[in-house]
Task: structure prediction
Amino acid sequence: LGLVEAGEPLHDLGVAGPPRGGRRVALLSGSGGSAVIGADVFERSGLELPPFSTEVQQKISSYLPPIITGIRNPVDIGDPIPPAEKLAPILESIAGGEQIDTIVVGRMFLSVKGPSLVGGFPKSFEQGREGLREVPVMVKEKYGKPMVVVLSEETSDAGPVEMEFEADRRNLRDYYLGNGIPVYPTLNRAAKAIINVARYKERFHQRG
Result:
């Protein structure tokens, strides 16, 4: 179709049949800096980041510390390795709203193993995060909202730790792809795929 780069899982955003993706995107990030960068990338690509309703913002803020201000869209959860019990209700709050077509989860460690490999976190840090990787899948299946995950390649070194981290990242990528969630290494690649699906959807409805 010429919509995305070769090998990108276009069908996972709903193009097999009536396409489901649209231009309205919600971005959930582990840090404020990447949230701002991501918002700029998406908007320059032709995507929209509409502010959430007051009700959704209130729900999101109830799970975040008072100092966190990024709750309108994009969302800065202030934690690149969030516990599952924090990430799940925030994603559910967003997915339950009507003003968003696709949710993007970026710049987070969604693997329990990854942080201990590259961030020096102790093994005890894994407690309470065992179900973290399942959260995006659970929310997608529950609400039927297209979900995209950005898993950055954190290092280019080839030492034993880096190789183990890359193997863990690939396992996580394959898990999401196997559950119908597209995975991209950068926000730019994610934005390109989403806008191309949105344009295809617009042409699809024009023909209909």
Observations:
- Residues 1-12, 14-18 have pLDDT under 50 and may be disordered.
